[in-house]
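Just curious. Invent one:
>
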Amino acid sequence: MGKKILIIAAHPDDEILGAGGVINKYYKKGDCVHCLILGEGETSRGEDNQDEKLLELHRQGREAAMKIGIDYLYFEKIPDQKFDSIDFLDIVKVVEKYIKQVKPDIVYTHYENDLNLDHKLTYQAVMTACRPCNDLCPKEIYSFEVLSSTEWQLEGEKFKPNIYVNIENEIEEKINALKEYKSELRDYPYSRSVEGVRILAQCRGLECNKRYAEAFKLIRIMK
């Protein structure tokens, strides 16, 4: 029986940007990958036809999930860029619900010092829900980096990875899945672009003598 992996992201496309290569590796190994997206990802933009655009964004997310190898994709409805407008405990309860449902062996989520406040609160909610006193506490927890947030943080501790994963055989799957998020991608030199994703993977690869890599920060491991 394979491992159960749970990716917990704030917004649609964060899961692919942060861990798309690793997700595809788990898929190829036969492990079961679950992905929880907490936020709507649309409502902060103040555009017309938000309901239709939200449905389209979720459709894009499901297409990306199929391409990358996510077995189960869950969408919650926390307002985009307004995670701080609801009680923090309510976010924790949502995360706890999926921890109990999935019973993951490994959890991946955002970096604690991301520029995006939704990302920070997601990390805090995950760590609260996965506290060691919880019988369903996952054995491993990792943080990932998300372009257009992690690298833009100028204050606090910058992202310093201590885990590198070779994604030479997964980079194209990661990019192809990301392309499904047509409403989220922008043109280069904006970092959240196809070129930006490839450049970051090359940069992380240089740090570990691989062509392409994803980098993570190990938060906790229990054996």
Observations:
- The chain has a mean pLDDT of 94.
- The chain has one domain: 4-221.
- The radius of gyration is 16 Å.
